[in-house]
Amino acid sequence: MRRRGFEFRRPARRRWISGGWVLWLVIGGLGVLLFLLVLSRENQPRSAPLVPQKFHISSFVEGLNVTDEMLSPHSATRQVVDQISLAKAYVTIAKESNNIQFAGALSAQLHHSQDLLSSAATRGTQLTIEEAETTIRDMAFLLFQAQQLHYDSASMIMKLKGQVQSLEEKSKSETEKSTKYGQIAAEELPKGLYCLGLRLSMEWFQNTNVQRKLAEQRRMSERLRDNHLYHFCVFSDNILAASVVVNSTTMNSKHPDLIVFHLVTDDVNYAPMKAWFSLNSFRGATVEIQKVEDFSWLNASYVPVLKQLQDSETQNFYFSGSGDNRTPIKFRNPKYLSLLNHLRFYIPEVYPALDKVVFLDDDVVVQRDLSDLFSINLNGNVMGAVETCMETFHRFHKYLNYSHPLIRAHFDPDACGWAFGMNVIDLREWRKRNVTGIYHYWQERNKDHTLWKLGSLPPGLLAFYGLVETLDPKWHVLGLGYTTVEPSLIKEGAVLHYNGNMKPWLKIGMEKYKGMWDRYVDYSHPLLQRCFVH
């Protein structure tokens, strides 16, 4: 198209209108650019700074209240958690019932439930009913099966009670068997001791030199009544044990030549005991040997224990095995009725010329000089003994029957017990207080075994009640025949006592304590070499 000439163009007014449109176009363009700029910023990905992230997490935790979630009755999380707790108990019960297949299925579903909770916790959201429905239903089915199998609480409590009762009965039975067999092992005469007794008996009757040595020792009979010497008495039917007591005492004595041992045994061991102590020297100590059968005054008319042995009920109780089954077998041991065991209550009559003696059991080892015992002031009491009431086990109520009115009326149940085995005895006070008569009184009233069961300690506690002077515990360390003893106590102890069934000369003896006893046995002796493999 051809352009107009200059003269035909519009006037200047049209030029002004053209400039205004330009202005509006510029403003509009700027607005569009600004809008596009803002829009582009909104669409750009922004990296969240550290602080806003923390704010987001804290806002989420505040929004998801775990406590409210668990307390809500409509919470899927709570249902799953409750099922898991119950399933864990049922898994254990199923295994106890030997239902391994069901326990495996329950364990697998248990792990699935735990995984569901773990995934919900990882993504930081609540567990919904929709996603947990299948898991809850499957677990509920297994829990229902468990109830059908009587795995519910009431049934399991009854079942467990039955199992506990059965285990208690088995434990009691095994304990009684252990006690019985332990008692048999403790009473069994080891082959070596039996052999030694036979060979010594042959030596005594065949070797006149042995009898001559004993006759020479009898010429020193004045020493047996000399109250300026140290007199010890031991009542035993065990040759080797008695030898260890004598040997350990003289070996550790500052003045062994001032020691006099008074040994009393039975008729069976009398000849071998005489032979052994005639064949061996004990550093100049005097050893007297007697047999209990020679004490004619020890008869049923005088000794309550012998009188009770004539009673048929007593014989059945101790010897037939048909006694009270509720009484432990250790209390029905006939050895407690042995005269050698009860001879300790007749010491003033056995040794009428003596004023003071130290009584030693045959299961002790002496580690220190004991001469100071004879100068201890007993403060008018009859006996010096080490108390054993550091624990409640060794108080009077543990040995005596306090349901009996006689015991309840005369003795304090919390009175401290003490130990036989190493005792200093003032025989003058004994005779003055008539302790043997007190012993007879209580022994006669226990003929029906209602005051105490058996043994020599309970009547000793009664006979010497209020007449015992407490000695330093270092004089007498107990427990080496049945328990563990502190090494420091053993090291400082003057007399070590192997009280209990595990005697050092038995196979069941405690190995860690045998060495202290073996130290005083000369296994190189020809007779011992023939009888003992050591």
UniProtKB/TrEMBL annotation:
Family annotation (Gene3D superfamilies): Spore Coat Polysaccharide Biosynthesis Protein SpsA, Chain A
GO molecular function, one term: polygalacturonate 4-alpha-galacturonosyltransferase activity
Annotated source species: Dioscorea zingiberensis
Family per record: Belongs to the glycosyltransferase 8 family.
Pathway, per record: Glycan metabolism; pectin biosynthesis
Keywords: Cell wall biogenesis/degradation, Glycoprotein, Glycosyltransferase, Golgi apparatus, Membrane, Signal-anchor, Transferase, Transmembrane, Transmembrane helix
Localization, UniProt: Golgi apparatus membrane
Record-annotated membrane-spanning stretches: 21-39
Protein name, per record: Hexosyltransferase
Gene Ontology CC entries for this record: Golgi membrane
Annotated membrane topology: Single-pass type II membrane protein
Primary residence: Golgi
One GO term of the biological process aspect: cell wall organization
EC identifiers of the protein: 2.4.1.-
Record has NAD as a keyword: no
Keyword Cell wall biogenesis/degradation appears in the UniProt entry: yes
